[in-house]
Amino acid sequence: QEIFVDMMGANAYANWDDFLTYEGKEPRALLDEDLRGNGPLNRLYETADGWVVLCAPLDVEWDEFV
Question: What is the rounded distance in angstroms from the CA atom of residue 59 to the CA atom of residue 66?
């Protein structure tokens, strides 16, 4: 099986949250200086045993996690 995707389609998929622009659109969340995330609930954390990703952008996800 083969899949062919042009660069425009691949870029649109990879950057879906910033691909379109419109009036009133929220700015894209930027990564911190270490490139580990854009907030405490969406980032990569180093632990004693390696790394863990925490991604809980919605309140309901955080409530279920804790």
Answer: 11
In a 10 Å sphere around its CB, with 0-12 CB exposed, 13-18 middle and 19+ buried, how is residue 43 labelled?
A: middle
Is the pTM of the predicted complex or chain greater than 0.90?
no
- 53 CB contacts (<8 Å, ≥6 apart)? 43, 44, 45
Please give the Cα distance from 13 to 16 (Å, whole number): 5
pLDDT in tens, 31-52: 999 999 999 999 999 999 999 9
Task: Check: CB of residue 37 under 8 Å from CB of residue 43.
Answer: yes
